[in-house]
Amino acid sequence: MTLFQKIIDREIPAYIIYEDEFTLAFLDITQATPGHTLVIPKTPTTSFMSADTKTLAHVQSAAQIVAKRLQERLNVQDFNIISNSGPLAGQTVFHYHVHIIPRYSDKDLIIEHGSHADAIESIYQKISTNPK
Ligand code: 5GP
Fold it and tell me: Which domain holds residue 58?
């Protein structure tokens, strides 16, 4: 079982900002930029390459809903929507996921672990439909 399955099962906590029948979206713990979110299918599959077409569609559709919420709540317009597929591509959690990374400047994107992680609670409060 992967870490993301444990987030789906609520065995480990996450800042969940969107959920529907097929998908879950939560803030990435590293916050490469403020609002960095992961969208995952509830039915596990290893990667983009193993996902069936319905799963791909559900995840992309949820990703757009989430990105629109980020646009509105964080006043950001542009995004990188990325899926790392396989270890050589940097995939570290083998449950298919899409990164939604809001862009606040056009400088090269460097995914630095923890770069904005200290602000995750306040970012969550801005984005969540049900702030704590
Ligand atoms: P990958 O490297 O597989 O494309 O992305 C995995 C992502 O999962 C990384 O960006 C990493 O920061 C994130 N991540 C790893 N562990 C956790 C965790 O416990 N909680 C959350 N919210 N994100 C995590």
Answer: 3-128
Decide: 90 in ligand 1 pocket, CB within 6 A: yes
Q: Is the pLDDT of residue 46 over 60?
A: yes
61 ligand 1 Cβ < 6 A: no
What is the rounded CA–CA span in Å between residue 117 and residue 126? 15
Domain of residue 21, CATH code: 3.30.428.10
- Structural domains counted in the chain: 1
For ligand 1, the distance from its centroid to the CA atom of residue 118, given in whole angstroms, is 15
Residue 28 predicted with pLDDT over 80: yes
Mean pLDDT value across the chain: 93
Q: Which atom of ligand 1 is nearest to the CA of 90?
A: 2
Rounded-to-integer distance, Cα 28 and Cα 63, Å: 14
